[in-house]
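The record is kept unedited without comment:

——
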Amino acid sequence: MIPDTPSINQLAHVISQAAAPAFLLGALAAFIALLINRLNRIVDRTVVLNGIPDHDSARVRLKADLPRLMQRAAMMNRAVFWAVVASIAVTLLIIVAFVTAFFQLRHEYGVAIFFLISLSAFTASLIDFAREVRIALSEYDHHA
């Protein structure tokens, strides 16, 4: 048996409630792009440092920065992961809102759970990002 389709008013209500999570999803996409750009810069720097030959006495000391760069890359990788988890939770939140409206079910608990998951994952991403920013700048970054 197919449930009664929701009324226009019910759908309008769900759409209005989905607007804020949709903006959050857009913000998360921009944040992920920023994180990936930062991760790419770290990887590029690692490649350059690994390319320094051991006999280049003027620049071989820069290789000492590789462990710090690897630590930063790991933090950025985790930050990207948690931001993607947050994005998935927001997407599921929107899906749950529409599916429950279609079946005329209460959606508050499901939406709240996905919102909390999203904010928790976003917080984890921000923490890793903050940790990476904290160790990002060193004297090695000012040399080729």
